[in-house]
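Notes from hallway chat w/ T.B., transcribed later so I don't forget. T.B. wanted the structure written out for a chain they're using in a teaching module, and asked if we could keep both sequence and structure tokens in one place. Agreed to drop them here.
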Amino acid sequence: MATLLGDKLKLKTVYGISVQLLFYIIGCVEAPVFLVVEKLIPKNKRDGLWRKASMINSALLKKLSGIEFDVEDNTGNIEGPFLYVSNHGSVLDGFFCFGLLGPNIDCLVGPRGMFKYPFNIFCFKAGAIDVLRDG
């Protein structure tokens, strides 16, 4: 006998998987298109195309999945450059950094081998810097 809570959890799981699949499909379709389109843009501005696409994708994923962020901006007293560092390794960190902080940042992400198609293309075409962390 199914319970109401069990049915809700199944529905949320199916919805969550659907959103992730849609995000992956969008990336798989966009990546080849942007690889062609970037050839029409000067080399020094190509990363901006990928960063803006990552921002839009991140906003879409956030909206569809119902994720809400409460970002505290404590940067008002900081002079000069600074780093935002994720406390965990995730393929989506780069996307969410662009989505939350804008396209004019430099993302530090996990090693290239951690990323699979199409995320590997988006992250590194957008100028993400891969960092190898030790144990």
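Follow-up for T.B.: The helical segments are 4-37, 46-65, 93-101, 119-125. Might be a good example for the class.
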